[in-house]
What we know:
By secondary structure, this protein is mainly alpha-helical. It is 64% helix and 0% strand. The longest helix is centred in the middle third of the chain and has 22 residues, at 93-114.
Amino acid sequence: AALVALGLAGPRDPLGNLMPLVFWTLGWMALVSLCGVFGNLWRWLNPWAGLYRLIGPDWRQYPVPASLGVWPATGLLILFTAFLLADIAPDDPARLAVFAAIYWCVMMAGYLICGPSWMHQVELGHAICGAYGRLAMINRQTGGIGGPGWQLVAAPAGVAAGAFALTLLAAGSFDGINETFWWLGLIGVNPLEFPGRSAVIWPTVLGLFGAVTALF
């Protein structure tokens, strides 16, 4: 809540406002990387679990069908990556604060209505950190230890989780080529006279979908 308030009322410079610094640097980069070493830290740090434990068990719940796996999270991953790559100002503090507030409200409502299955199958932070967490050498829940990826070998995650991993790889790969001269030339943009992000929204979105489709 404090970060959202800072995003809305604080400095508009992304380098002088904690909202984009915490969201993109500590969250999207540092936390995800640490999960690959220490397991899914997001399950302990997420901003919903505490409130849910206070009021959630009293709600009548309608769990997300287990047959869906993490397909809902896969769809959210594509939308999130489109926001990251194609939005005109994803690091604008106020814009990011509104995005984060809406996401928090939607996820909290889903958590209350569907229970823990919502967090495991829909919520994007849990899905991403959980995927990286399964690469950790130590399983803190069971105390098991092994080489990187041993948990995936010991308990395969299924088709939906594999599709999520492919989507994550495709999104990261497209992020790597999105601003290269090769890509800009492919979509007919002169990199020395870049017209701005608003002029390449749809080529970026279509490129992202193309990358995901191609990797599948």
